[in-house]
Amino acid sequence: MSEQNGQTRVKVENLQKLFPISKGLFRKSTDFVYAVDGISFEIKEGESLGLVGESGCGKTTTGRVLVKLEDATGGQAFVHNSDRDEMIDVMDVESPEDRKEFRKHVQMIFQDPYESMNPRRTIYDIVAEPLKVHNLGTTEEKEQRVVDLLRLVGLTPPEPFLFRYPHELSGGQRQRVAIARALVMEPTFVVADEPTSMLDVSIRISIMRLMLELAEKLGVTYLYITHDLAVARYMCDKIAVMYLGKIVEMAPTEELLSNPMHPYTRALLSAVPVPDPSYQRPQVEIEGGVARAINPPDECRFIERCPFAVDECKTAHPNLFDRGNDHLVACYLVAPDGSWTGRERAKLELRS
Amino acid sequence: MVVEEKDPVDVLTELPEGEGITIGAGEQLPESLWKVRLRLFWKSFKRNWTLFKENKIGLAGLAVIALFALMALSYPVMRSAGPWQNDAVYNPVIGYDAPRAEFEIVATEADVVDPTTQMDANKAQLWCFRVVAGDTCVIPQQPAPPGSDHWLGTDPLGRDIASQLAFSTRAAFLLGLIAAVVTVGVATTIGSIAAFYGGWLDNFLMRVADLVLLLPLIPILIVMSGLWQINLPILGVLIGILSGFGGTAIVLKSQALSIKVKPFIDAARVSGGSNWHLISKHIIPNVLPLSFLYMMFTVTEAVSLEATLSFFGLLNIDMSWGIMLNTAQSQGYLRSGLEFWWLLIPAGVAVTLLAAGFFFVGRAMDEVVNPRLRAR
Ligand SMILES: Nc1ncnc2c1ncn2[C@@H]1O[C@H](COP(=O)(O)OP(=O)(O)OP(=O)(O)O)[C@@H](O)[C@H]1O
Ligand code: SF4
Ligand SMILES: [Mg+2]
Fold this sequence. Notes:
The complex is a heterodimer of chains A (about 350) and B (about 375).
Chain A: E1 8-20, E2 32-44, E3 49-52, H1 59-66, E4 74-81, E5 86-89, H2 96-102, E6 106-109, H3 123-133, H4 139-152, H5 159-162, H6 171-183, E7 189-193, H7 201-218, E8 221-226, H8 229-235, E9 238-243, E10 246-252, H9 253-258, H10 263-270, E11 321-322, E12 328-329, H11 346-351
Parallel strand pairs in A: 3-8, 3-9, 6-7, 7-8
Antiparallel strand pairs in A: 1-2, 1-4, 4-5, 9-10, 10-12, 11-12
Helix pairs in contact in A: 3-4, 3-6, 4-6, 6-7
Chain B: H1 8-14, H2 33-53, H3 56-80, H4 87-90, E1 100-106, E2 118-120, H5 121-124, E3 136-140, H6 161-197, H7 199-214, H8 217-227, H9 232-260, H10 263-270, H11 275-311, H12 321-330, H13 341-369
Helix pairs in contact in B: 3-6, 3-13, 6-7, 6-9, 6-11, 6-13, 7-9, 9-11, 10-11, 11-12, 11-13, 12-13
């Protein structure tokens, strides 16, 4: 479904979000968590970008900045306004009116379908909320719209669902409601923050299929956040791998999966089960969990866990640039043509 | 009704091809919105009632409150169509009646065993000239013991106690209502705003709340009543503000704080909701059950505070349970024990019972609102 060279829907340049580490009430903090540290990407019409990485690498923060739940501390972001066919400068969205207008075009689906709905409001209230806030249509029109939306997301017949409370629905049904709420304003861009990770494995695939169908039907562009490469492969045309606030590798899905270049991506991939038992994927093992990037020093972010690190890696974090085939990597040991220049010594090095 | 996961692809193929979502004239909903809402409200009310019912003390409290409500409602009936129609006798403030009764005359005040039927010779001179011990004398009784005209007797000023009691019930409810509504309004608003905005506003409001919490309520009200004429509605508002801005605001703020960080607040924000929308549609409705609980305790507080202040004669109020006790006290009947029990027991019991009624209902509501407290 990807249409290459389509119109740009989302453009992010050098986006940065630092969280100050609180040092008490009256002292100005000097330490920051570099949750998102200068990432850039572009999403074209009809395309979806998968943001993949371990817990704490800044995926959610990226999404929240793009829907203005957090204000970026640096960089630029633009989202397409389909009404006027122009790009909205996300950094310029400041006043309450601007924010309200902005949210006609940008929506978010949250990870937790239980907690992302007010337990005291009915499904109708939840899905109709954007319509009410933006004062669109009469009561009958709103009702009709909600009914249409619920049917669209597969809650059929919709009427019995309207005046139920979230706790009366299953997790999958609730996430369908969340999708309906996100789509009711017909946004161009939806941030989906691990929308299936809290669901039963058996219903994940149906929610994912629904989201794909709806993207095609309504022309929605997703930033699909997940820690699961297999999910990203199913959902996205392009994948960006994040590590401690940085994008370390980004490429069209199949290119990235068949030809992973960054040591971290290779480690992630070796954790994904392979359907073909005779296939031996080159193993890269890494130790430890993701730390928090607090005032990170001038060196590759991955250096602590990288089995291939060389002296050069201590100079600065490597730039992310294209190695051909639209395949971007940030690693000193990947040559400009994409070939690996380091030694394969992963396992031995770690065990000794 | 069948509620199941349906394959989304099937669903999509059922839809008309084309633009996707459309606002069209589809099938009409069976009911109008407000009817559904009413039904939902009724449903949740029934569910909460089932929980509440399990608490016997709460039920008893509710029964007590209902009894007092009946009493308050009966007052206008009794005065306009019942046995209390004669305003000159049964007006709770200016009514007067002193039924005559025969008294046995004794020599000195110390010889009086039963002051409702005996009187010393000296005092009796006022009504019967030159009586001596052993005589009898017909004297207008003030206070008069309970009888058929005055079911609970009269007070030292010859006023009917039963009608005073009924009249004061209305006042107690009015006071409680005003105090409770003001408390809930103040505490919910302050708590939600402090939690939502945080920062210096939160700091400021919470420091004020600490201050109010530390203020000793009774001395403050005593000082205030010295400075201004405090009547019932003003007292209600004062108690409401003082109890709403103090502890209740702090409790509700912490509740609001736990709601503020819920993802549904972010979801509402992404839906385009303004700050006020978030506070009024999402935070306050989730704080409100707890506010209602504190409302009950405020009623308890208001009823007993009024009695205390009136007892000391500090309020500008026509008649209340506290005034009734104050009358007995100021005329010196408090020291004579329970001989004149009708001056003390009805008003005292009324204050205690109504305050306890609301308190018990509050405790029972606590279990409905905080499921953790529930037995089992
Ligand atoms: N409001 C905040 N204040 C301070 N630090 C924050 C805040 N939100 C996120 N962080 C920090 O920013 C980093 C990135 O967090 P983020 O939630 O974006 O990670 P994530 O990739 O979504 O992880 P997960 O997979 O667990 O959801 C973390 O180190 C986190 O502790
Ligand atoms: S730059 Fe160096 S430390 Fe960073 S991933 Fe590449 S090899 Fe490892
Ligand atoms: Mg996250």
